[in-house]
Fold this sequence. Notes:
Layout: E1 11-13, E2 16-18, H1 27-34, H2 40-54, H3 64-91
Helix pairs in contact: 1-3
Amino acid sequence: MNTNDIPAFPVPTDHGFVNEGATGMTLRDYFAAAAPPIPDDVLEDRMIALLRDVGTMPLWNTGVLQQLAELNARWRGLCADAMLAEREKEKR
């Protein structure tokens, strides 16, 4: 099973836990949700660059909020991948 497919909350059975074919939140999803926030220095640098391009336009009309949401999603995905990689190392 791919580490991205491991369910966060496996279903217990008489024979252990059911992992195959499980639906819902994966362990990667869970780790991404639990990831720490983007460090302030990274966020500040990105905000300065975005706001420099925006000028005086309202943020909701510029795509800045969408870009920040995408940055947050990428950050959390990277953290989740790092947590899964560390988990695999511990198994060896």
